[in-house]
Amino acid sequence: MPGSMANVPKDLLQQIQHLEEIFTVSTEKMKEITDHFVRELTKGLTVEGGSIPMNPTWCMGFPTGYETGTFLALDMGGTNLRVCEITLPEEKGEFDIIQSKYRMPEELKTGTADELWGYIADCLQQFIEYHHEGEDLDELPLGFTFSYPATQDYINHGVLQRWTKGFDIDGVEGKDVVPPFEAALAERGVPIKLTALINDTTGTLIASAYTDTAMKVGCIFGTGCNAAYMETCGEVPKLAHMKLDPETPIAINCEWGAFDNEHVVLPRTQYDVIIDKESPRPGQQAFEKMIAGLYLGEVFRLVLVDLYEKSHIFEGQDIAKLKRAYSLDASFLSSIEEDPYENLSETQDLLANKLSIQATRPELELCRRLAELIGTRAARLSSCGVAAIAKKKGWESFHVGADGSVFNKYPHFKTRGAAALREIFDWPKGKRDPIDIRAAEDGSGVGAALIAALTLKRIQEGNVAGIQHPETMLKGTKAADKKSDQV
């Protein structure tokens, strides 16, 4: 590993040791967090509920791999709108995909609801006109990845709890987003029927399970963090009034970023406390604020500012750029951890170019160690959530499909997470790990299409629990089947 502590002055060594003490999550602590996590997941499924919402998604079962038909998928992100057409052929676990991306204009995020749904409907119309010019289409079924916190009494309905990702459109929170969306489609005569409104974690779970039967959990480790897994209806007391078969599976969107909002068990530092206090919603998303990409750079920045103000680093330098909140993101830490040079010259250039700070060699060593500590803590805490689902369900061996920028791009995140699971479960060294976290399939595209397919299949079989106005969807079923016959 590049860098060495041999030439670090005693004062800085003491600071590094202190940082190691406060950012290191011990094996015992991870076990304690995991056990508390299990209790909180269970509480979230009760009528009274808890901090973790544990939202039932009305996706009731895994794909078999033999689903067929043609489906649209719409993914409404913070930056882009992605539209996919996914054809599921006869071959098990296969799919064909064509897709287009449309920019999400910034002004839409603070505009009116009519402008938002109108723009999305326009993009869908363009997509269909381009790919199906001159065709006489029946309604195509659509899976809509709407990754904003929503309450779902039905799979084809969703009441927005609150906007995130920079959106702030009046008159949408607290209302079902489906009717105005469908009205915009109808106004333009777009032949599409919304069949399923899904969260990206549920999509990740289902898309990954389509190609891998050992898949039991879908996770997002990105700007935010979340997980979904398949529960049985009998284990969800808040659904008891629906008299569902207790053995029926139902995917639960945990929304686990809210774990430990009460600050019972997570090892928060003074820097985590500041992040929470100065965030738009103090007291919420306690877990997310310690592990998600949005906050990793901010923790790093706060530590450096604190050390500067206590005269430990960057003496006599202007740190105006470093003092800007959220001026560093997770990729800044990634770059420091990936610096291959013994003298940490890339880190030196990074600090000079981004922050106008000329760092000494010992200060570079401290930055390097701090980035490692923050990145490692995030990975270890993330694994506590995966371990908690495993313990709650009594699953000993399975795969986890993970997506998101931190999982895919942050150096060593996967390895550190795997090491944490080994410690939590006391697995013997040298053997293959029974729980394997691996890169997920495309949840917001393929996953959304598959959930639409599974929903239509349920309607055909007469299982309409959690589906609003199922009779209006059967046209879509015929369209999907007819299209599949042509494939």
TrEMBL record:
PROSITE patterns: HEXOKINASE_1, HEXOKINASE_2. InterPro entries: ATPase_NBD (IPR043129), Hexokinase (IPR001312), Hexokinase_BS (IPR019807), Hexokinase_C (IPR022673), Hexokinase_N (IPR022672). Gene3D superfamilies: 1.10.287.1250, 3.30.420.40, 3.40.367.20. GO terms for biological process: glucose metabolic process; glycolytic process; intracellular glucose homeostasis; mannose metabolic process. GO terms for cellular component: cytosol; mitochondrion. Its EC number is 2.7.1.-. It catalyses: a D-hexose + ATP = a D-hexose 6-phosphate + ADP + H(+); D-fructose + ATP = D-fructose 6-phosphate + ADP + H(+). Residues 16-210 form the Hexokinase N-terminal domain. It is an enzyme of class 2 (transferase). Keywords: ATP-binding, Glycolysis, Kinase, Nucleotide-binding, Transferase. GO terms for molecular function: ATP binding; D-glucose binding; fructokinase activity; glucokinase activity; mannokinase activity. The keyword Flavoprotein does not apply. Pathway: Carbohydrate metabolism; hexose metabolism; Carbohydrate degradation; glycolysis; D-glyceraldehyde 3-phosphate and glycerone phosphate from D-glucose: step 1/4. Pfam families: Hexokinase_1 (PF00349), Hexokinase_2 (PF03727). Residues 216-454 form the Hexokinase C-terminal domain. Belongs to the hexokinase family. This is Phosphotransferase. It comes from Cryomyces minteri.
